[in-house]
Task: structure prediction
Amino acid sequence: MAQQKAGPLVDVVVPVYNEERDLPWSMLCLRQFLAESFPYSWRVVVADNGSTDQTLAIAEMLAQKYSDVACIHLPQKGRGRALKKAWLESPADIVTYMDVDLSTDLDAFLPLVDAIVRDGYDVAIGSRLRRESQTTRSWKRTALSRGYNLMIKAMFFTRISDAQCGFKAISRAAAQVLLPLVKDDYFFLDTELLLIAEKRGFRIKEVPVKWIEDPDSRVNISRTVRQDIAGLLRLRFGGIPRPASLAEAEPRRTS
Result:
């Protein structure tokens, strides 16, 4: 059951894989923030994908304890797979996601959602690479991120500055159209979703964020880089997919 407030219902999806240490404090911080500072109705959805530790048990315990927390489980790994399931099955007006480590400062969450609620955008994304953003990260991660996003710009002539920041929101209508077109089930989902959305006329808002790198990240950087490059090549030479009908592809317009 969602926390009932005015306005739209927002699902906050937190994909997790072997996060038994971080999940309890993350949910405490996130729920407290939403209850005290977020003006819309909300629900937190913990999306476990193939954890082999106690993450699922903790998520199920939290869902039993708190009426505003739900838990879904997928036996296979894949953040993209978890997001597809959580977002496509959600009854919410707006679906969002953030990383369990809460690396992105939560003060940016309301501007992210309001880009859709108030400003009429279809998709809103946090960006660590905007001039106004403040980030604390290693030189290696900074170089990889900037290099990856420069590669995207060179290959697709996109205006997106930071495709992979784990802090995004999308309207239910846009999610229902775009997600079935996304083939990737892992970390490349973010990039693929944004490229399809931009090339098909959906409006994307970038929100500058404060971001602090988590040194205990579960991401295998070398494997993720290989998968991302393979995904970019697939889209570059295979083409950006189109929705099944023009009616489905109609993005929101502001008045």
Remarks:
- The chain has a mean pLDDT of 93.
- DSSP finds eight helices and nine strands in the chain.
- The helical segments are 23-37, 55-65, 79-88, 109-117, 139-156, 172-178, 189-199, 221-238.
- The chain has one domain: 6-238.
